[in-house]
Amino acid sequence: MKPSVIFAGTPDFAAAALNAIVAAGFNVPLVLTQPDRPSGRGLKLQPSAVKKAALTHGLTVMQPTTLKTAEIQAILENQQADVMVVAAYGLLLPQAVLNIPRYGCLNIHASLLPRWRGAAPIQRAIEAGDQETGVCIMQMDAGLDTGSVISCHKYTIKTDDTASEVHDALMQLGADAIVADLQQINQLQPIPQSETGVTYAHKLSKAEAQINWTRPAAEIVRKIRAFNPVPGAWTVWQDKPLKIRRAKVVSYTGIPGVILHSNEHELIVACGKDSISIEEIQKAGSKAMSVTAFQAGNILQQGTLLASAETDA
């Protein structure tokens, strides 16, 4: 008999797992997700991706602001669920909640634990130049991604992968992995994480997304990939932010931040070591576009200096 599953999650990454769990025929008596948030130009309240998916399947949804109250814990207990699956939920699970399901709480984490515990594992893996990442299904405990690992599923990071592309690959990998583990939940044998190789994937900030042109081109390209789509690696042009969405390393040298070559098809900016050739760019208030489209109406001239994180931009 398949286990009964409480599901807790919020964004697309989690919604894919919920869809897969439902499609596999598991009973989901309750779905937890974050409260509706204002979004878009009108700042209208918008439901999370998980809420949309849950309602599509006719599932019961709750959106508590905390799981620490006796009331919500009683509701969870009353579901008599065998297991809770958690994916990018956004709320801490107190020990009282971790203890409720028969098989505890399983987390879908987007890294190869113990590397990149924390909030932004996909982005930090790309930024650090990791050649592979993946998804781990973890038995949750009270620590920050410190629980024993049930299964790991690897993904090779391509040289031009952005965070968005890795996210989508791991989203499907995680959905498949959690279904496979739920189907054999009686036989799972969690393995404690090693204390060797622990790293933390700290939350991204807009400030750190500003490009420092004195850094090597390879490092800058990794940052551009890691911060695409959010918050977007950026520099300053005409006193406004200019986001660089895609770029590659090229072997030119010059003063960091200076545009060395500029025409309708090419935009090369010098870095501390080597240079980058920008392939996709986005100015303030506009959509991302190819360099060819951008240069057609917004010519960046050779010799222009783009502001660096080292300046007062």
Automatic annotation (TrEMBL):
<dbReference type="InterPro" id="IPR044135">
    <property type="entry name" value="Met-tRNA-FMT_C"/>
</dbReference>
<dbReference type="Pfam" id="PF00551">
    <property type="entry name" value="Formyl_trans_N"/>
</dbReference>
<dbReference type="InterPro" id="IPR005793">
    <property type="entry name" value="Formyl_trans_C"/>
</dbReference>
<dbReference type="InterPro" id="IPR036477">
    <property type="entry name" value="Formyl_transf_N_sf"/>
</dbReference>
<dbReference type="InterPro" id="IPR041711">
    <property type="entry name" value="Met-tRNA-FMT_N"/>
</dbReference>
<comment type="similarity">
    <text>Belongs to the Fmt family.</text>
</comment>
<dbReference type="InterPro" id="IPR011034">
    <property type="entry name" value="Formyl_transferase-like_C_sf"/>
</dbReference>
<dbReference type="Pfam" id="PF02911">
    <property type="entry name" value="Formyl_trans_C"/>
</dbReference>
<dbReference type="GO" id="GO:0004479">
    <property type="term" value="F:methionyl-tRNA formyltransferase activity"/>
</dbReference>
<dbReference type="InterPro" id="IPR002376">
    <property type="entry name" value="Formyl_transf_N"/>
</dbReference>
<feature type="domain" description="Formyl transferase N-terminal">
    <location>
        <begin position="5"/>
        <end position="179"/>
    </location>
</feature>
<dbReference type="InterPro" id="IPR001555">
    <property type="entry name" value="GART_AS"/>
</dbReference>
<comment type="function">
    <text>Attaches a formyl group to the free amino group of methionyl-tRNA(fMet). The formyl group appears to play a dual role in the initiator identity of N-formylmethionyl-tRNA by promoting its recognition by IF2 and preventing the misappropriation of this tRNA by the elongation apparatus.</text>
</comment>
<dbReference type="InterPro" id="IPR005794">
    <property type="entry name" value="Fmt"/>
</dbReference>
<protein>
    <recommendedName>
        <fullName>Methionyl-tRNA formyltransferase</fullName>
        <ecNumber>2.1.2.9</ecNumber>
    </recommendedName>
</protein>
<keyword id="KW-0648">Protein biosynthesis</keyword>
<keyword id="KW-0808">Transferase</keyword>
<feature type="binding site">
    <location>
        <begin position="111"/>
        <end position="114"/>
    </location>
    <ligand>
        <name>(6S)-5,6,7,8-tetrahydrofolate</name>
    </ligand>
</feature>
<feature type="domain" description="Formyl transferase C-terminal">
    <location>
        <begin position="203"/>
        <end position="297"/>
    </location>
</feature>
